[in-house]
Amino acid sequence: MSQPDDLARAVEAALFAAAEPMTEAALSEHLGGAPVGAVLGELAAHYEGRGINLVVRGGRWHFQTAPDLAHLLRREREEPRRLSRAATECLAIIAYHEPVSRAEIEAIRGVQTAKGTLDVLMEAGWVRVAGRREVPGRPVIYATTAEFLTHFGLASRRDLPGIDELRAAGLLDPVDDALEAAMSAAGGDDESAAAGLAPDEESA
Predict the structure, then answer these.
(1) In the 3-class helix/strand/coil scheme, how is 90-142 assigned residue by residue?
(2) CATH C-level class of 6-73
(3) What value does the mean pLDDT take over residues 86-110?
């Protein structure tokens, strides 16, 4: 990127000062309707490989620390968020099948899901209520959030790993592999298997 023009500088300043990520439309409105699409692409390229990057997550733009430098800014006392196996399974199901109801989550997992499990995911900011299914009883349905994409470094749900990638990364244990093989033989879909599910009892 050559010497930045006034619009590029304005976009850069607006994103830097923003309290939360901004969509292209919101940014354009903030800058009096200026066309910012091309400028965002140029700025993203300009910051690529630097200490901070300009990224888009779920259609919202923000600056973030370069992934390989994040450890330098992490507080030593910071506790990583740990999810139970049940919560991890629910999050995976929601991510790969959203929007889904609690009953649909339980059907895939094969066990009941405690209400507290979904509460934990919503408190983390990774799952949201996405409305109600238009069927008898109108059950609540759940979907992932932009914060989920940001936390896991995904531009969109299309970037979710497939089952082959999960296996290559060592994230499927032998029980999960056996379940996936059985589901494939029975005509189950790979996306359910990619969630890494095993028919265990609900954990607290």
Answers:
(1) HHHHHHHHCCEEHHHHHHHHCCCCCHHHHHHHHHCCCEEEEEECCCCCCCEEE
(2) mainly alpha
(3) 87
Residue ranges covered by each domain of the chain: 6-73, 85-194
The pLDDT of residue 143: 93
The secondary structure element, H or E, covering residue 143 is strand 140-144
Q: Work out the burial of residue 80: count CB atoms within 10 Å of its CB; fewer than 13 is exposed, 13-18 middle, 19 or more buried.
A: exposed
Q: pTM of the entire structure?
A: 0.49
Is the confidence at residue 27, as pLDDT, over 80? Answer: yes
Domains 6-73 and 85-194 share a fold: yes
Domain covering 85-194 assigned CATH 3.40.50.80 in the classification: no
What is the rounded CA–CA span in Å between residue 30 and residue 66? 26
pLDDT in tens, 35-82: 999 999 999 999 998 888 999 888 899 998 888 887 776 654 444 457
